[in-house]
Amino acid sequence: MKIALLIPVYNEQEVLPFFKEETQAVLRTLPQDTFEYVFVNDGSSDGTLNWLKNWAEQDKSVKIISLSRNFGKEAALTAGLSFAAGADAVIILDADLQDPPSLIVPFVQKFKEGYDVVYGQRTDRQQDSFLKCFSARCFYTCYNAIASRPMPPNAGDCRLLSKRAAQAVLRLPERERFMKGLFNWIGFRTVSVPFARQARKAGQTKWNYWRLWNFALEGLTASSTVPLRLWTYFGFAVSAFAFLYALWVAAQKIIYGNPVSGYASLMVAILFFSGVQLISLGVIGEYLGRIFTEVKQRPLYLTDETVNCDEP
Q: What architecture is the 2-223+300-307 domain classified under in CATH?
């Protein structure tokens, strides 16, 4: 059985020696299977690519796909799946070792039991900050509330895909890709493997809260049109409330002779409805931006060079 380990990397030179050591220790416990590494260098500006090339010279099972610039993790994963298409299964790992390589063993075991998708589910996130855990909880709650196909909470990109599952993901044509949603959408026989999230071995994370916020917005708009529908319902509700309030003001004036509310209430109403309109335009803009990206039909990524691998 041939299994490809897909590892997207971006400025991970410091942690790669630890990744190599821990991963090879795990693979030595599975001598009956053939493993290959598929590294996708996502435009690293440090010595990541040179370090990988040195490893690839010593070990022909190490494949490198170097992209022409930083296209983002979603594009890097798609590139890796394309170049690993010949494997019986693909296991996605991060080089930072927060998702431990020891997961390879239960992943392969579940795959041999007949599962097409085996994903790691984080049961212990003590290494993450309170804010990150809280924001992740909020995201999964919101996503599952509006998505047509709910996603398992605390399930990251770390997973095994069978050959047919990987090919199914590659058949999905969208440019703005939210890979967790795509992995979940394809279906097939799926099982989870619980694990405790580890601390990063070395280097710095590339995900700040602003990038995570934008990533969450992409995930929500990529998986559902419910936000657009919600603003339609909200507009009807506000219009109904405004109509009833107008009737109440008119009745107060006609029956009791009360003066109509003045400047303060008028300004509050104007500012409130202006805010509502701007927010609704923002939601429409998010979807319009996705359409703009899709209709340009640009490739997901461009390859600069490859090492030890054939074209997909």
A: Alpha-Beta Complex (3.90)
φ, ψ of residue 190 to 5 degrees: the values are -130, 145
User: Do residues 276 and 238 make contact, with C-beta atoms less than 8 angstroms apart?
Assistant: yes
Instruction: Map out the domains of the chain as residue ranges.
Output: 2-223+300-307, 226-296
Reported pTM = 0.70
Question: How long is the chain?
Answer: 312
Tell me which H or E stretch contains 119: strand 117-124
Three-state SS annotation for 238-293 = HHHHHHHHHHHHHHHHHHHCCCCCCHHHHHHHHHHHHHHHHHHHHHHHHHHHHHHH
Question: What is the SS3 assignment for 35?
Answer: strand
Q: Predicted confidence band at 294 (pLDDT cuts at 50, 70, 90)?
A: confident
Q: What is the mean pLDDT of residues 92-97?
A: 84
**Token pair recorded at residue 248:** 């109440």
Both structure tokens of 144: 């599952």
Phi/psi at 303 (5° precision): -95, 130
Give residue-wise pLDDT tens across range 205-218. 655 556 666 666 66
Q: Which amino acid is at 285?
A: G
